# Entry
Amino acid sequence: MFSKEESASLRKEFWTSYGKSFPRKWLLYNTQIKGFSFKFVADQKKAMVCLDIESYDKTKNELLFEQLLEVKSNLLEDYIPDAVFDELYPLENGKLIHRVYVTYNGEFNIHNKNTWQGVFLFFNEAMHQFEEFYEDFEDFIKRAIY
# Structure
């Protein structure tokens, strides 16, 4: 078991190591759609790459998620075959969001450095695929709200 300080230090080292291993500026929050962002998630149990829809405007969230469902087959067939579309994904704080995500299938624990390299490779490939998908369908997705 790790103290809070040790755990925080390992998490920081994990993200710093990832940034050094794959130095690249990711799209993440720069989608030009408020509340529509790409995220890396890593904790003691899982690693994921996500597309989250979580603005304060519930109607906008619904429209964006419905627009993604329109191109779901494209995402699954051409970019990320294992992507999961979750209309009501619960965050740790209890908030429900719309999330499209892919989970790392290998062994991973952010506290175990021996499991990091596989996740780094997964993050790099999965986020690259999400970004390519967004680049190809950005105009279509934005039509839902503009």
About this structure: Residues 4-142 form a domain with the Yope Regulator; Chain: A, fold (CATH 3.30.1460).
